[in-house]
């Protein structure tokens, strides 16, 4: 069902189109011109506005005001029949006013009928999308950079599902790299038993080993161990996999605490074992996207000639290097080569003979988590129309090369389907992070995702004691803590630098997760005091006018447009902005408008409160927040 705001915009568009066709039949104005000139003005000017007459004046040699007058006259017979009751000429701009009663009736009725589905959309049409996140090496606890990655991926999966896409949530586990070899060497040689959560303990040990790598003999042993790990079936590969799986189980505990879940884990060792890598390289060579260098700097390597990518992106007009290596002269694959093979599988170009087994029987969302492995059964994973990768912005160039290689191979659908959600640097105000140096453990705090959540719970409890907020159970404290952290990370455009602030995250007065949750609880308390079933049937919308209640109605009516914009632009912060807008409009309504005991207006206003509750809940859920009814 189309939301009221889209319905009203469509009506305004049709009015303008028919009027322009009748009044200016020779004008070269198409639908995109009319849509492009439509906007939402400041509330004092109306509900919708069009600057099409400014453009018309230039084409027809008439004054904008006169053009607007003639178009408004043409539209006059249609006014009042739908959502739009009045048009006004503002120096050539055409401003439209909605019929408040009709607009409110359609909006409230839609919310009450659709409930948890309100705001959802069908633009995805069942299209299959694979979202990859957070892809953390299985030898450390998540730090806050990993947490941001996971929160973006999880929220974007929810948003895409709300728009009708069939979403597969995938976690790529790199269990063959040098970092895993270092951790396995430390596990086998340093000794000691874990005295804390396994991923935290392993990460601390990894930092120690990394420092020991300065010794040549240690470095040589680790490099030899890494080569043995890459031999399928070797004792070293089995030990590395067992170690990595134990670490991943601990990481999954962190994910569950934040309400983050996935469908499948793809292990790099399993990807290599299928032989997909060689198949991918063969296709790339056959299609002209890769070649074996015969001489020079890259002799013996299989490379991508970056000159062939010229014109596909500005980055390739003056590249800093001649080529990008896929396979080194010693036969080992680079990250780009592995990524190419993996994405050919993701996008259905290659079929991987993977076997899957249950890694976690039942996650917090009630679904199992599957994992590739030597044993198991074949399942229908992969083969998506779109692959959305949540990866740091420092990988932008590599992702661009990958995308361009698909275009070079004539696989334009695959190139279009490869989406990179880049995110910038993330830090706490208390200090910086560095996974390799050990700074990620911090001086006074361990800046892990686990520690962030523990700290949030402590601070939420302290905040509750200082204020009148009712946080009297562990369940409520946990929900507010997770909601505060998730919102603080997701409210910023991911490409910008995120500086996590406790003061901002736990601000109950505005622009935060707790503010939205408190607004929701406030609204729920009105429904509770009302004490009767809220029904839309028989409501008299005659009391709706140009007041704060209508401002809230208009905010609620935008829900579907917001979720669609967030899905198409792959930005969770659009949802966060909308939640702040909706919470702010409700707070103004709450402070200025009597609900219970407001006479004939009471049925409408209580229904409006119920609608606000529903939409706040729907959109908090879409970014992984769990609203509570009492605070």
**What's the overall geometry?**
globular
- The count of DSSP E runs of length 2 or more, i.e. the number of strands, is 16
Query: What is the CATH homologous superfamily assignment of the domain at 455-622?
Result: Isoleucyl-tRNA Synthetase, Domain 1
Give the second-level CATH assignment, the architecture of the domain at 455-622: Orthogonal Bundle
Q: How are the strands of the largest sheet arranged? A: 11-12-7-6-5-13-14
> Class by helix and strand content?
alpha/beta
Number of helices: 23
Rg over alpha carbons: 28 Å
Which whole number gives the mean pLDDT?
Answer: 92
Blueprint (SSEs and pairs):
Layout: H1 4-23, H2 31-36, E1 38-39, E2 48-50, H3 52-60, H4 64-75, E3 84-90, E4 93-98, H5 100-114, E5 128-132, H6 144-162, E6 166-173, H7 178-189, H8 198-212, H9 216-229, H10 235-257, E7 264-267, H11 268-273, H12 276-286, E8 291-292, E9 302-305, E10 323-327, H13 335-346, E11 355-360, E12 369-373, E13 386-392, H14 396-408, H15 412-417, E14 418-423, E15 426-428, H16 449-466, H17 474-490, E16 498-500, H18 502-505, H19 513-530, H20 548-557, H21 559-569, H22 573-592, H23 602-622
Parallel strand pairs: 5-6, 5-13, 6-7, 7-12, 13-14, 15-16
Antiparallel strand pairs: 1-2, 2-4, 3-4, 8-9, 9-10, 11-12
Helix pairs in contact: 1-4, 3-4, 5-20, 6-21, 7-8, 7-9, 9-10, 12-13, 16-17, 19-22, 19-23, 20-22, 20-23, 21-22, 22-23
Task: Write up what this structure looks like.
With 631 residues, the protein is of the alpha/beta class. Helix content is 49%, strand content 12%. The chain has a seven-stranded mixed β-sheet, with helices on both faces. A four-stranded antiparallel β-sheet has the order 1-2-4-3. A three-stranded antiparallel β-sheet has the order 8-9-10. A hairpin with an 8-residue loop joins strand 1 (38-39) and strand 2. Helix 19 packs across helix 22 (573-592). The mean pLDDT is 92.
